[in-house]
Amino acid sequence: MQTKGKFFDDVAKVAGGAMGTLGGMKQEAESAVRQRVERLLSDMDLVPRDEFDAMAAVARRAREEQEKLTVVVKDLEARLAKLEKASGTKQAAPAKKARVKKTTVKAKAAEPTAKPAS
Q1: pTM exceeds cut of 0.85
Q2: What is the C-alpha separation between 114 and 79, in angstroms, rounded?
Q3: Are the C-beta atoms of 84 and 90 separated by less than 8 Å?
């Protein structure tokens, strides 16, 4: 009977050792994968979370400001339309816009139409 007890004790020790070894292998594998992923992420030029959050806040504020300005422009356009209706005449387009169009037209007209001889 003593040999059977000793056999089972030895089998239990071997099984315990195997489980410990497998646990160690698991930890090493996880560590290797973690290191590889960290190296891959560092090579990808990703933006840190705090910088992303800061830029998102800037974009959000810019969007809010743009929406406010849109409301102001619509209000001004409505006032202008009211004034034009009251005076009975339509206001001329701003000179700045007309100048830009003329400059653009002149620039296009100044371009050579004939291709140089090769």
Answers
A1: no
A2: 50
A3: yes
